[in-house]
Design brief:
This protein starts with 8 loop residues before the first helix and ends with a helix. 74% of the residues lie in helices and 3% in strands. The strands form 2 sheets. The protein has a two-stranded antiparallel ribbon with strand order 1-2. By secondary structure, the chain is mainly alpha-helical. The chain folds into 2 domains: 260 residues, no CATH class; 215 residues, no CATH class.
C-alpha cells in the first residue's frame, strides 16, 4: 500500500496545496492573496500536470486494486489539469468585474479537479463514487456562486437535486453489481462476467450505472439540466463545466464500459446507440431557437456528446481512440470560444445575446476571424480539426456496421451547422450597429488565437495526439 503512494502524488500535491491555501486565507480573513488566488492555483495545477507526466505508470491496479495508473489515466489527467489552469486564469478578469473574486472559487475548483482525477484513475466502483461526489459537490456550489443572482441560485439548486437523483441511480446500480458478482473492483467484475451465466442482476445494475453516467455527461434523455445550469451559472463556471468535467466523465464512461462490462458489450451497445442518436438530434434541434450563446452552447454540447458516444457505440479500439480524439479537440475548441464569451461586454456589462455580435467584424476583424474558425470547426466543416474528429467516429461507426447511427449523425451535423453559421452571419453580415465593446485582455486573445491555430494545424496531424490516444485506448481494452 505504501509503495502505491507514488501513483497518487499529483492528487496529494493538489490537496495539500488547497488545504494550505485555505488555512492561510482563513487566518488572514481572505484578504492576503485573494487578488492572485486564481493564477496561483493555475500555476500549481500546471505543476501537478508536470508531475503526472513524470510519474510511474503500472499495467496492474494499484492501491490494493482501488486505483489504476496507465497511459489512459495519464493522458486525461494532463488534459484536465492543463485546461483547468487555463480556465482559472481566464476567470480572473470576470470575477473581478462582478465582485466574485473570493478565495473560495479556485479552492472549490481544485477539489472538483481532484475528484475528476480520482474518477479517471478509479479501478473500483466505490472509489469511482467518491470521485464523482467530490467533483459534483464542488460544482453544485460553483453553479450558484453568484448568490445575488436568481438564475445562478436556481442553476445550483436544479443541478443539486438532479445530481442527487443521479447519485442514487449510481449507488443502486453498484449494489446490484456487487450483489451479483461479489466485488466492486473493475477487473474482478470483468472476470466474473466472463465466467458466469447468471447475469440478470448485473445487467440491471449496468443500466442504472450507465444512466447515472449519462446524466453527468449531459447525454439524452438525461440532459434536461444542462441548458438551465449553463445559462444560470457564472460564465467562468459554465466554461469550466463545458470543458473539464466532459473529459473526466468521458474517461469514466469508457472505463466502465470496457473495463467493467466489456464482456457483455453486446448488451450495452444498443443502449449507447440510443444515447448517441438521441443526443445528436436533441442537441441539434434544441440549439436552433436559442439566442443566449451560453444556452445555445449547452444544447450544442449535448449534440457533441452524441457524436463522441458514436465512438464508444462502435465497441472497437478504433472507435475508442476516435472517442478520445473527439473529447480532446472539442475541449480545445470550447476553451477558445469561452475565451471570447467571457469578454462579451456592452457598455462594460457582460452580455450573452448573440445578436449583440452584429457587425462585430468591423470592430475586431482578427478576433472575429479566429472565432469564426472555431465555430466552423465545431460545425464539422472540412478541413478543420472538428471535421477530422467527426470523421474518426463516423468511420469507426460505419466499420462496426452501425450505418443507421452514422446516418443520424450526418443529419444532425447538417442541422447543427445552421446555428453555428448563424453566429458567423451575425458577426459579418447582419446590418445592425455592433453593441459590443470589443475589449479583450492580452492573455485571453492569446488563448483564442492559439485555439484557432490548433484546430487549423490539427488538420495535418491532430496535434500529434493520435499515437497517444491509440496507446490510451489499447491500455483500456483487454
Amino acid at each position: 500500500m505504501i509503495e502505491s503512494i507514488k501513483y497518487i502524488i499529483p492528487e496529494l500535491f493538489i490537496v495539500l496545496f488547497t488545504l494550505s491555501y485555505l488555512t492561510l486565507s482563513v487566518l488572514s480573513n481572505g484578504k492576503t492573496l485573494v487578488a492572485y488566488s486564481n493564477n496561483i492555483s493555475a500555476i500549481f495545477l500546471l505543476l501537478a500536470s508536470a508531475i503526472v507526466l513524470t510519474q510511474d505508470i503500472s499495467p496492474d491496479p494499484v492501491m490494493n486494486g482501488f486505483y489504476s495508473s496507465n497511459a489512459f489515466t495519464s493522458f486525461f489527467k494532463v488534459l484536465i489539469l492543463t485546461l483547468s489552469a487555463l480556465i482559472l486564469h481566464l476567470s480572473d478578469d470576470y470575477l473581478k468585474k462582478n465582485n466574485l473574486q473570493i478565495f473560495e472559487f479556485p479552492l472549490l475548483a481544485n477539489f472538483s479537479i481532484v475528484g475528476m482525477m480520482i474518477i479517471v484513475s478509479a479501478n473500483d466502483l466505490l472509489s469511482l463514487y467518491i470521485g464523482i461526489e467530490m467533483q459534483s459537490l464542488s460544482l453544485y456550489i460553483l453553479a450558484s456562486f453568484s448568490r445575488d443572482n436568481a438564475k445562478s441560485t436556481e442553476a445550483g439548486l436544479k443541478y443539486f437535486i438532479l445530481g442527487a437523483l443521479s447519485s442514487g441511480l449510481l449507488l443502486y446500480g453498484i449494489s446490484l453489481v456487487y450483489g451479483t458478482t461479489g466485488s466492486t473492483q473493475f477487473h474482478l467484475i470483468y472476470d466474473t462476467i466472463m465466467y458466469s451465466d447468471s447475469l440478470l442482476g448485473l445487467q440491471v445494475g449496468m443500466v442504472f450505472i450507465i444512466s447515472s453516467i449519462a446524466f453527468k455527461f449531459s447525454a439524452f434523455p438525461f440532459h434536461m439540466w444542462t441548458p438551465d445550469v449553463y445559462e444560470g451559472a457564472p460564465t467562468p463556471v459554465t466554461a469550466f463545466m463545458a470543458v473539464v468535467p466532459k473529459l473526466a466523465i468521458g474517461a469514466m464512461f469508457a472505463k466502465v464500459l470496457f473495463d467493467v462490462f466489456g464482456g457483455i458489450a453486446h448488451n450495452w451497445q444498443l443502449v449507447l446507440v440510443f444515447l448517441s442518436g438521441g443526443s445528436m438530434i436533441v442537441g441539434a434541434l434544441g440549439a436552433i431557437a436559442q439566442t443566449n450563446i451560453k444556452r445555445m452552447l449547452a444544447f450544442s454540447s449535448i449534440g457533441h456528446v452524441g457524436f463522441a458516444l458514436m465512438g464508444l457505440a462502435s465497441v472497437s479500439p478504433e472507435g475508442l481512440s476516435g472517442f478520445i480524439i473527439y473529447l480532446f479537440l472539442y475541449s480545445i475548441m470550447m476553451i477558445g470560444v469561452f475565451a471570447f464569451i467571457l469578454n462579451m461586454e456592452k457598455d462594460g456589462v457582460l452580455v450573452t445575446d448573440i445578436y449583440l455580435l452584429a457587425q462585430f467584424s468591423e470592430k475586431r476583424p482578427g478576433v472575429s476571424f479566429a472565432l469564426t474558425l472555431l465555430l466552423f470547426s465545431l460545425a464539422g466543416i472540412p478541413p478543420l480539426a472538428g471535421f477530422i474528429c467527426k470523421l474518426y467516429v463516423f468511420m469507426a461507426t460505419i466499420n462496426s456496421g452501425l450505418i443507421y447511427l452514422a446516418l443520424v449523425g450526418a443529419i444532425a451535423s447538417v442541422i447543427g451547422a445552421f446555428y453555428y453559421l448563424r453566429i458567423v452571419y451575425i458577426i459579418y453580415f447582419m446590418e445592425k450597429e455592433t453593441k459590443l465593446d470589443g475589449r479583450m485582455p492580452f492573455t485571453h486573445l492569446c488563448i483564442l488565437f492559439l485555439a484557432s491555430a490548433a484546430i487549423v494545424i490539427g488538420t495535418y496531424n491532430l496535434l500529434g495526439v493520435e499515437p497517444l490516444t491509440r496507446a490510451a485506448a489499447q491500455s483500456l481494452i483487454y
